[in-house]
Amino acid sequence: MMARGEGALEASLIKAYVCRAAEWVTREAMQIHGGMGYAEEYDVSRYFVDARVLSIFEGADETLCLKVIARQLVGRVGK
After folding, report:
1. What does the CA dihedral 56, 57, 58, 60 come to, rounded to 10 degrees?
2. What does the pLDDT look like over 20-75, one tens digit per residue?
């Protein structure tokens, strides 16, 4: 789809969903580990930081949802 110049909406939706899912899963993992989840010696701490960065790098989630996804959905309705 991307090779044909299509699929930007689908890719944006997937990225928004995956970023939020990764944050939720790693936050739950930290909760299971308790206070040790925040210790840098444990992998779960790094996983949470990495998951949080996903939604910041390459455009914040809010920007992605409002400016990319919403515009494309509104554009489809107008056609």
Report:
1. 10
2. 899 999 999 999 998 888 888 889 999 999 988 877 776 666 676 777 777 777 77
Tokens of 20: 């939020």
SS3 state of residue 58: coil
Q: How is residue 54 written in tokens?
A: 């996903």
Q: H helices within the chain, ranges in order?
A: 8-33, 43-54, 61-63, 70-77
Active site residue 62: no
Q: Write down the domain spans for the chain.
A: 15-77
> For residues 25 and 43, is the Cβ–Cβ distance under 8 A?
no
**Active-site residue identified among 6, 10, 28, 58:** 58
